[in-house]
Every structure is written in structure tokens, then in C-alpha cells.
Amino acid sequence: MKTLFKVSLFLFFFLGLVSLIQAQTLTGTVRNATTGKPSAGDDVILLRLGQGMEEEARARTDAAGAFALNMTSPNAQHLVRVLHQKVNYDKPLTGTAPLELIVYDVVAKIPGLAGNIGIAQIESDGKTLSVVEMYAITNASNPPVTQSNPRNYEISLPEKAVFDSAQAKGPKGIWVNVAPSPISGQKGKYGINFPLRPGDTNFKFAYHLPDNGTTRLQLRLPYPITNFAVMHRPKMSFKSLTPGAFITPGETKGFQIEKAVASPVVGDVALFEVSGAGKTSSEAPAEESAAQVSAPPPAEPVPAQAASSTNTPVDQSRREIWFFISGIVVIVAVGIFALRRMNQPAAAPASVGEPALEALKAEMFQLETDRLRGSISAEEYSTTKAALSQTLERMLARKKVAGQK
């Protein structure tokens, strides 16, 4: 009997020692960037990634904004989530060093919100017209705050259109599925309750409608968009019903670009018609270029059982390598073109470098398009944009000098 007691006591202490060895304590602080002070009373959640997101530990920040979490699975991938004023702020965990997480105060409306780029991508198989709209909305509030309300982003669908999907991605975040809610009393209008945190927030939604040969589309923008374009398959016909409202810079990745002349585009996009069939089934649609995971409403905490899909990033290496190579090719081509122009007699100074400048502008638009689609990493985006911007500045400077001669 005494022997059994000793064995049980030994096992108890042994298992306790094992659990202490396996567990790690994760510490950190939460800072409110709106006030510049520690954020007290916020819930901090440690989420284990794998088969969805599973809550592993939870704590609350003290008066100094500090927290401590017990990590029981140190070898797993984790995400740390802070809930501040019913908005979550996530940070992937890359180590066990003390963390600093940033949150912002919430307001219902930020004046002057606008977007840098917007795209309506159109395809048709002759029976069904498929549209994917993508927008990047910039929150440059000062002091920085987060906008959160049930109609943070409004979608206006054309008549007879049916939703296929809707996603959103916060600054430095991943694409998540969101559920548009019908706006009472406004047919075809929906609201998305996805917070607009400081930085760029991307929205992407897909829908389809019957193709009766010629389809007239009236797109409406909830925020002003500096650069807006319609992209359609080259076999399809595009007709602006407002003369001079669009220009056609060229084609990119199997789509013809129809860029709006107005900058920014505010409210209604100029009315246009599309006709004809054009769809390549072998190409992956734009919405498949980014990771999509199910996510709970942003205003609520995430219980362990809430996540139902795997939070696995999509491998984008092929797309990134292709884009990086194409960027180098364009820069080299522009350089060769500029050298040839410099070696030629200056018969028409005003036109020096025009094709090269247009090529650079088109490439920069493509760069913004790929960033919006999620088919290029943040690092590749920054590096390529810096190279293109530097080349563009040199070309403009050379053009100015040539024009003065």
C-alpha cells in the first residue's frame, strides 16, 4: 500500500515537472498609438494555428499594458490577438521575446478616407458575366484611429447580380472571408463590418449576372479612388457611354485595361457597356491569388471552436518570381530605349521618351494591381516600386533637359 502511494506521488510530481518544462511564458505589452499610453484592460489571446485557430491562452493587460500568457505548445505556429474596443489586432508570433502590440482607439467615422487603386475585372463565358471588384482604402488619420461601423465598406451590386464571395485584408494581415449584410431599404446595397485600421485595407468581392449579349454596368464607389480601371478579356468589347471617360493603356496578364481619366473617381464610375465572350478557364481567377480563411465577426472574441478552416498561406513564389523578372525586363528595356533616344538627333525634343514613360507608368499600375490582388509580397512590392520610381524620375529629368535644348 505504501509502495503504491509512493509510486503515485512520484508520477504526480513527474508529470508536473514535465508540464513545467514544456510550458513557456510569453510576456509583452500593449500600447495605444492613439494616445501614446499603455493600453489597460485589453484581452490578449494566444491562438494556435493548424486546423483553424484554437485558443491556447488568454490574459488581460494591467495598468502598465503588460500581459503574460502560458504557451503549452511552443513548437506550434501561433498568433497573438489583442481586443481593444471590440476591434482585434493580430500579430504572428515568431519567438518568445517580450512583445509590443499596437492598438488604436475606435471611431465611427473618419473624414476624408479614400483609396489609391480600384479595379473591376470582367469575364464572360457567353452566358454569365463574372465580375471581381478590388479596392485599397487608405486610413491616414492623425492621430491614428480605427474606423468601425456596420457599414464600414458599402457594396452596390448591379441589377440581377448575385454574390459569389467577399474578402477583406487589413494592414499586414491576410485575406479573410467576410459576410456582406443587406442595407435596409436600399436594394442591391450591402455593408461590410470590417474595421479600417491605420494603413491600407483591401476589399475584394466577386459576383455574377446573366449575360444577354450587351451588359450595361454602373459601378458605385463608397470612397474616392485615385486610380480606377476596368479590366476585361481582349476578346470582349468595351464601350464607354461617356465620351473621353476612359483611355486604353494596353494589356496585362491576359486583360485589357480601360483606365478612368478622372482622378480621383468619386461616387459613380462613368457608365459603360461590355459585350462578347472572353474567359480562360486554365487561368486561376484573381481571388485565388491570396489565402482565404474563415474568420468570426471582428467585434467579437475568438473562441476555440469558432475557427473552421485551415489558416495556411498560399504559395505565391511563382507569381513573385515572374513579376520580379518582368520588372527587371521592363527596366532594362526602358534603359535601352532611353540610350537609343539619346544617341539619335534631337529632331523632336518634346516627344523624347514618351513611349518609355508610358511603359513605366503602365508597369507601376501593374505593380499596384498585383499588390491589391495579393499576388506579390510586401518586400517585392517595396523593392520594385523603388526601382521603378527611380527610373521614372530619371526619365522625367532627361525629358525636361531635352525640352530645354
What does this structure look like?
- This protein is α+β, with helices and mostly antiparallel strands and 405 residues long.
- It has 3 domains: 23-103, Immunoglobulin-like; 114-283, Sandwich (Immunoglobulin-like), CATH 2.60.40; 317-404.
- The protein has helices at 2-22, 317-343, 354-373, 378-404, and strands spanning 24-32, 37-38, 43-50, 52-60, 66-71, 78-84, 87-93, 99-103, 106-107, 114-124, 128-139, 146-147, 153-156, 162-169, 176-177, 181-182, 189-192, 199-210, 214-217, 225-232, 237-240, 246-252, 255-260, 272-275.
- The strands form 6 sheets. It has an 8-stranded mixed sheet, with helices on one face.
- Strand 14 and strand 15 (176-177) form a beta hairpin.
- Mean pLDDT is 78; it is low at 9-22 and 282-352.
Compile the SSE list and pairings:
Layout: H1 2-22, E1 24-32, E2 37-38, E3 43-50, E4 52-60, E5 66-71, E6 78-84, E7 87-93, E8 99-103, E9 106-107, E10 114-124, E11 128-139, E12 146-147, E13 153-156, E14 162-169, E15 176-177, E16 181-182, E17 189-192, E18 199-210, E19 214-217, E20 225-232, E21 237-240, E22 246-252, E23 255-260, E24 272-275, H2 317-343, H3 354-373, H4 378-404
Parallel strand pairs: 1-8, 9-12, 10-20
Antiparallel strand pairs: 1-2, 1-5, 3-4, 3-6, 6-7, 10-11, 11-18, 13-17, 14-15, 14-18, 16-17, 19-24, 20-23, 21-24, 22-23
